[in-house]
């Protein structure tokens, strides 16, 4: 069959469709976004009517997927690594309820923090929840694991995690697609009580999860994704996880690695193969993208056992993503490099687009806040976070989605006035609403700027679930309608913006300012699409 | 055959259209491809890079090792310099000469061009002007692909087909403009390498 050129994320989308999935549930987040976008545009997915609309956040996505699994159908929840923090309550407990229809949770980690606040390693979450974790080493495996993961989930009775990292997510290669499987029929769970986690039932369910652990290890040991390659030179054994296997092989282009190599792409750790390596090799080098999970597991606390090398002993850097050069160094191989980067090359950080509405909001805020000095503005995650950088430097925080409103309230409680929050429309829908309710209930003295560009722009302009609802949400929570102020952020409205900010900062209570103008990137994409459809 | 290509530019300049045309051509030629892209935050006007690898044998790594790129193809001159450590001893630097200045501390343009011209093997081409001459300023990326084509071991016909594939749905006129841009770029590189 003809190979399809697919990004790792697209391979997962295609694999899920071909594996008989009935719905994907997700909130955008780099590098996971394109899985859902791919499914949204896929012909077969549209024909089958597979669910693929965006959820308000990762927790709602995860729980909705769990509901679909309860009803017997195959489903996938997708998110970036920090999204799993938001969904963590549902995630951990779903390992205890177990599943009915196959359930894959795909989590995309971002080592080196290309587009993230941290580089947490989701494999720890998999271990924490005690479920099988799949970690593809290439696009083909990503496809196969998505397609076959539902069956693994149904067989083991628990959700299965599919963990990828940025490089695989956003790298393209030819993928062989296989036969399309049917969707499941709707069917009740066999155990009518399994989803009722009252303590009595939860204890029973938890025990059964514990009892399954040995079987999960056996599955890993027999997995076609975990391979032991023999090697003559036993002074060293190499364990490589996920994409690190490719970086290792790049250093042996003729396939001539002299050392025994264990490739791990399914967890829990395949114990039998690891023991074999320990028995025959003097030292073990662990190559893994992310935190040193396997390395830590194998490292002997008292230092009496086999020496284990990797990120913890300095053979590899403790942080950041791997690449073939770092692995060459860890193997003591010669590394050549081209000319140095000339000193004149300047950094080119991302910036707000020229003409973006967030700019107009920041211009006005800077003018008004100049009277109070720096340090009064709590913000959130989105394009508007770039307002922390020159030339604006308006905002003073970006922690996790929703933290602007709540941190502003805390600071205001502590007497820091004025206390201002800047949050985007999608972030408000994701996690801002509950914080605003807290603020309203205590009539906190805060000014909340919901910078509404009618789009989830940072991740590429998806539909925002708050579209058209922001004022009514605020009113419903109890904000005084007189202090919900909407304005179009444009240069020509600068004076009006300034006046409005002044008035609302002076108001002692919760006030909402909504600068509203469509993201210019989204607007031009919309126009291009219209034109394209008109041409057809 | 084996080609390691670094594609460089600034978010929004559309280096991925070059990658798409090249990738389609390589696929039609029954070659193996791996191509790592930059998505996400940097697309907001930051530095973006794509590692493109084409080979007649299976490819292991999605990322190119330092010192092994056969070609750095950059649509912006300062960005061309950012990835020099990847260039092999026999590699070519092919860059557009039009700067994209969206930072206050962009270095002196003459110095940037001097650093480009210090490289033993380079092609510096005013792709923006050449694209205008071909009939559409937006086809500068295809001028760049044309300028890089003498250094990539893919049949030129395949590249032309790649362009027909990528731009086909936009109509015959757009296809022709891009083909013209591709050929102009190639001719310039042949005469100025
Ligand atoms: C928990 C979590 N989920 C997803 C993301 C990825 N993410 C970062 S910004 C953003 C979009 C924010 O959209 P909005 O608030 O409307 O701001 P805009 O980018 O449109 O200005 C998303 C989805 C994240 N950082 N954290
Ligand atoms: S993508 Fe949209 S919201 Fe983001 S900076 Fe550009 S115009 Fe502003």
What would you note in describing this structure?
The complex is a heterodimer of chains A (536) and B (193). Chain A is α/β, with parallel strands linked by helices and 536 residues long. Chain A has three domains: 2-211, Thiamin diphosphate (ThDP)-binding fold, Pyr/PP domains (Rossmann fold, 3-Layer(aba) Sandwich), CATH 3.40.50; 227-330, Rossmann fold; 357-522, 3-Layer(aba) Sandwich (Rossmann fold), CATH 3.40.50. Chain A has helices spanning 8-18, 33-41, 43-48, 58-70, 81-86, 88-97, 123-129, 139-156, 166-169, 199-222, 244-250, 271-280, 293-298, 324-330, 357-369, 403-413, 425-441, 470-477, 494-506, 520-535, and strands at 4-7, 21-26, 74-80, 103-109, 133-134, 160-165, 171-175, 227-229, 236-241, 261-264, 266-267, 283-287, 307-309, 377-378, 420-424, 447-451, 484-487, 511-515. In chain A, the strands form four sheets. Chain A has a six-stranded mixed β-sheet with strand order 2-3-4-6-5-11, sandwiched between helices. Chain B is globular and about 40 Å long. Chain B has 193 residues and is α/β, with parallel strands linked by helices. The relative contact order of chain B is 0.18. In chain B, α1 (15-28) crosses α5. Chain B has seven helices and six strands. The longest helix of chain B is centred in the last third of the chain and has 21 residues, at 172-192. Chain B has a single domain, classed as 3-Layer(aba) Sandwich (Pyruvate-ferredoxin Oxidoreductase, domain 3). Chain B has helices spanning 15-28, 77-82, 109-117, 127-134, 140-148, 156-167, 172-192, and strands at 2-10, 32-36, 47-55, 69-74, 87-96, 122-125. In chain B, strands 2-3-1-4-5-6 form a six-stranded mixed β-sheet. Chains A and B meet through β7, α11 and α14 of A and α1, β2, α2, β5 and α3 of B. The complex binds thiamine diphosphate and iron/sulfur cluster.
List keywords for this structure.
heterodimer, A: about 525 residues, Rossmann fold, 3 domains, five-stranded mixed β-sheet, globular, B: about 190 residues, alpha/beta, 7 helices, 6 strands, binds thiamine diphosphate, binds iron/sulfur cluster, oxidoreductase (chain B), IorB_Oxidoreductase (chain B)
């Amino acid at each position: 069959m003809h190979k399809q050129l697919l990004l790792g994320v697209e391979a997962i989308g295609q694999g899920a469709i071909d594996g008989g999935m009935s719905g994907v549930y997700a909130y955008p987040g780099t590098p996971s976004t394109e899985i859902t976008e791919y499914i949204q545009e896929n012909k077969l997915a549209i024909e089958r009517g597979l669910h693929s609309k965006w959820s308000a956040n990762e927790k709602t996505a995860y729980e909705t997927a769990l509901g679909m699994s309860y009803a017997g159908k195959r489903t996938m929840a997708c998110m970036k690594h920090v999204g799993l923090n938001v969904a963590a309550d549902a995630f951990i407990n779903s390992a205890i309820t177990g599943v009915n229809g196959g359930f894959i949770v795909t989590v995309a980690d971002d080592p080196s923090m290309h587009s993230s606040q941290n580089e947490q390693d989701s494999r720890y979450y998999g271990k924490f929840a005690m479920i099988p974790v799949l970690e593809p080493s290439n696009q083909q495996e990503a496809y196969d694991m998505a397609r076959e993961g539902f069956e693994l989930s149904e067989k083991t009775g628990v959700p299965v995690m599919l963990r990828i990292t940025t490089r695989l997510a956003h790298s393209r290669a030819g993928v062989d697609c296989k036969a399309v499987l049917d969707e499941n029929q709707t069917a009740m769970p066999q155990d009518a009580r399994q989803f009722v986690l009252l303590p009595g039932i939860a204890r029973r369910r938890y025990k059964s999860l514990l009892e399954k652990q040995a079987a999960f290890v056996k599955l890993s040991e027999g997995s076609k994704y975990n391979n032991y390659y023999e090697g003559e030179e036993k002074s060293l054994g190499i364990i490589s996880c996920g994409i690190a296997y490719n970086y290792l092989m790049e250093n042996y282009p003729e396939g001539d690695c002299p050392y025994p190599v264990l490739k791990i792409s399914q967890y829990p750790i395949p114990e039998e193969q690891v023991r074999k390596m320990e028995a025959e090799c003097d030292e073990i080098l662990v190559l893994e993208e992310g935190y040193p999970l396997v390395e830590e597991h194998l490292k002997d606390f008292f230092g009496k056992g086999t020496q284990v090398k990797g990120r913890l002993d300095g053979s590899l850097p403790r942080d950041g993503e791997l690449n073939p050069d770092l692995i060459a160094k860890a193997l003591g191989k010669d590394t050549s490099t081209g000319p140095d980067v000339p000193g004149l090359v300047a950094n080119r950080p991302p910036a707000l687009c020229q003409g973006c509405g967030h700019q107009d909001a920041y211009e006005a805020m800077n003018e008004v806040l100049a009277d109070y000095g720096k340090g009064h503005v709590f913000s959130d995650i989105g394009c508007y976070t770039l307002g922390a950088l020159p030339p604006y430097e308006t905002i003073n925080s970006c922690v996790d989605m929703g933290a602007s409103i709540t941190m502003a309230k805390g600071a205001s409680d502590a007497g820091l006035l004025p206390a201002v929050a800047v949050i985007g429309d999608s972030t408000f829908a994701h996690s801002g609403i509950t914080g605003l309710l807290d603020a309203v209930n205590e009539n906190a003295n805060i000014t909340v700027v919901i910078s509404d560009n009618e789009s989830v722009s940072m991740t590429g302009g998806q539909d925002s679930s708050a579209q058209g609802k922001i004022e009514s949400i605020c009113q419903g929570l109890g904000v005084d309608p007189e202090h919900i102020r909407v304005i179009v952020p444009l240069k020509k409205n600068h004076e009006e913006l300034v006046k409005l900010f002044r008035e609302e900062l002076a108001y002692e209570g919760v006030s909402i300012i909504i600068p509203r103008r469509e993201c210019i990137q989204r607007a031009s994409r919309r126009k291009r699409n219209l034109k394209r459809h008109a041409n057809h | 055959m084996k080609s390691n290509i670094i594609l460089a530019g600034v978010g929004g300049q559309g280096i991925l259209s070059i990658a798409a045309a090249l990738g389609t051509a390589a696929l039609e030629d029954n070659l193996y491809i791996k191509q790592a892209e930059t998505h996400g935050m940097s697309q907001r006007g930051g530095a973006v890079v794509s590692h493109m690898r084409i080979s007649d044998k299976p490819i292991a790594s999605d990322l190119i090792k330092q010192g092994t790129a056969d070609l750095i193809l950059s649509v912006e001159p300062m960005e061309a310099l950012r990835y020099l450590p990847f260039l092999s001893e026999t590699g070519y630097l092919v860059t557009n000469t039009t700067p994209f200045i969206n930072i206050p501390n962009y270095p002196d343009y003459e110095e940037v061009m001097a650093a480009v011209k210090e490289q033993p093997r380079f092609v510096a081409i005013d792709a923006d002007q050449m694209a205008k001459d071909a009939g559409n300023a937006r086809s500068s990326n295809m001028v760049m692909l044309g300028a890089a084509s003498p250094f990539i071991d893919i049949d030129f016909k395949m590249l032309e087909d790649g362009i027909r594939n990528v731009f086909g749905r936009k109509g015959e006129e757009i296809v022709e403009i891009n083909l013209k841009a591709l050929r102009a770029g190639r001719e310039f590189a042949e005469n100025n390498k």
